[in-house]
Amino acid sequence: MMKKYIILLAIIFLLCSCNRQEKLHQITGSGIGTYYSISYTGKENPDMSQSVDSIIRHISSQFSIFDTNSLVAKLNKGENLPLTPDFITVFETSQRISEITDGAFDITVGTLVNLWGFGPGREKRASPELIDSIRKIVGYRNVKMEKGFLYKENNSISLNFNAVAKGFCVDKLAEMMKTKGYQHFIIDVGGEVRVSGNKNGIPWKIGIQVPTATADGDIETDYIFFADNKSIATSGNYRNYKEENGVKYAHTINPKTGYPAQSTLLSVSVLSDECMIADAFATASWYWGLRNL
């Protein structure tokens, strides 16, 4: 009788354990010019916010074009500095994607981005003459890395990692989470997302925003799907643009033409194992992926 009682208790305990829902913890904040949100299950870590902020500051110190003390800002000014391991990783990945997309994705587009008023100065100075002049120095083959240093064919070349840095930041945060022993989480940095595991046995749900007519339009989603151990990045021209005389100029600059990307699409979303890869291809797809996918 005692043995049956013990077995019954064990079964009840097992059933209770299976039905127990782990609490969901969330961290939110801002960095690298956007917001971030991380949700995870398991034991709450009181030091998690500090770890997240540390990674975001580290990414910003290397890739922010708005921080005059960042590594990329100093390189753009012509300083000859040794590259960090993270910078080398992002640079090599960017160059590989540029090769795959025949230059549709190009980190040397920075000078054109600045010209159209989407850089640090925020002043639009684009003219056909200036665009034609700058286009001559734009091209991913005009920059290379040797022995941990960057070499530019022309000192006026300006690098811009905005189309890949957020995705890389998501990947670094995911790496940190797993190092700390967390396997079930979802990370969102400015709309670039990576999920791992599940939420109490249920796959994480991801929603894709409905493109809006204006930059400050209400945020809504019309497509929600379940994801498991995947990253998704969305590139859209409905939030970040400039309007002049009734004409909208998108922030995504076509390195081939020197002008903002022209497309009937309002947004493109890409799934990949790595968020950095999804981020870059989402940008390139405006004028490459639609012809080649």
Describe the model:
By secondary structure, this protein is α+β, with helices and mostly antiparallel strands. The protein has one domain: T-fold (Roll), CATH 3.10.520. It contains eight helices and twelve strands. It has helices at 2-19, 48-63, 71-76, 85-100, 110-115, 128-135, 165-179, 275-292, and strands at 24-31, 34-41, 143-146, 149-152, 185-189, 192-196, 204-209, 221-227, 231-236, 241-244, 247-250, 267-272. The strands form four sheets. The chain has a six-stranded antiparallel β-sheet with strand order 1-2-5-6-9-12. It has a two-stranded antiparallel sheet with strand order 3-4. It has a two-stranded antiparallel ribbon with strand order 7-8. β5 and β6 form a beta hairpin.
Spatial order of strands in the largest sheet: 1-2-5-6-9-12
Evaluate the radius of gyration: 22 Å
- Total domain count: 1
Q: Proportion of β residues?
A: 15-25%
CATH architecture: Roll
* Helical coverage, percent range: 25-40%
CATH H level: which superfamily?
Answer: ApbE-like domains
Layout: helices, strands, pairs:
Blueprint: H1 2-19, E1 24-31, E2 34-41, H2 48-63, H3 71-76, H4 85-100, H5 110-115, H6 128-135, E3 143-146, E4 149-152, H7 165-179, E5 185-189, E6 192-196, E7 204-209, E8 221-227, E9 231-236, E10 241-244, E11 247-250, E12 267-272, H8 275-292
Helix pairs in contact: 2-7, 4-8, 7-8
Summarize, please.
This protein is α+β, with helices and mostly antiparallel strands and 293 residues long.
